[in-house]
Amino acid sequence: MSHTAHIPSHRKPRRSASKIALRAGVAGGVLSTLAVAGASGPAFAAEPVTETIEMPTITADLSTQVAQSADATQQAANSYALQAEQDLAVAKAAKQAKADQALAEKKAEAKKKAEAEAKRKAEEARASRSAERTTLSTASHVAAPASGSVASVIAFLKAQLGDAYVMGGTGPNSWDCSGLTQAAFAQAGVSLPRVSQDQSTAGTPVSLDNLQVGDLLYWGSAGSAYHVGVYIGNGQYLDAANPSKGVVIQDLSGYPATGAVRVL
């Protein structure tokens, strides 16, 4: 026997590996249980989920609907733009029509004023000419002898210069050829027939080479003359020529007469 066998050892006896492993396993199990309990505790304490939200799934139909909606929106925008353009065009057209109407009314008013002014001037000229004729007629009646006066005939004829030619006209502002000569010789107290045919034989025939102032000229045959006028001297005659000339003085050389008669 060893001399130290009776002395107890100061070292603690070793724990066996199996005991240590068992203890570690138990401790790990406890900690795991606590960890699970701690993690699940608040979840069990919260309200339970009663609704489920499903996110829409984008399908081909949904894509088509979106595209169609975009097209409709674009079409609406285009329609609004076209309507705006049409409204603007209508407004412009209305404005232009109003301006055109105002211009037309202005022109019509100006034309109306011009016509009124022309009418006024024509009436003034007519009144002046009538007054002149009245003066000449009065003077010729005063100066003419009882048997008539060539001067009164010529004065009356010249007072009608510029009057219009109208078929069948007998004055006071329009004449035909025989109507003028009839009125002229009436100033001297001579009553001539109304038409050219009869006037061409109403006096004493005279030669065209021996004409005197106041002789009645005719064109055509005596008794069937188609035109008459009065010789006023210097190779000229006065007549109511035609619608384009009216009452004028003309040269015999330009339109020679066929014959002549002396009435006074």
Question: Can you put this structure into words, describing what you see?
Answer:
This protein is an alpha+beta fold and 264 residues long. Among the domains are: 76-143; 148-262, endopeptidase fold (from Nostoc punctiforme). Helix content is 52%, strand content 12%. The chain has five helices and eight strands, in the order H-H-H-E-E-H-H-E-E-E-E-E-E. The strands form two sheets. Strands 3-8-4-5-6-7 form a six-stranded antiparallel beta sheet. It has a two-stranded parallel ribbon with strand order 1-2. The radius of gyration is 67 Å and the shape is rod-shaped. Mean pLDDT is 78; it is low at 17-22, 29-46 and 133-147.
Please supply descriptive tags for the structure shown above:
alpha+beta, two-stranded parallel ribbon, 5 helices, 264 residues, 8 strands, six-stranded antiparallel β-sheet, endopeptidase fold (from Nostoc punctiforme)
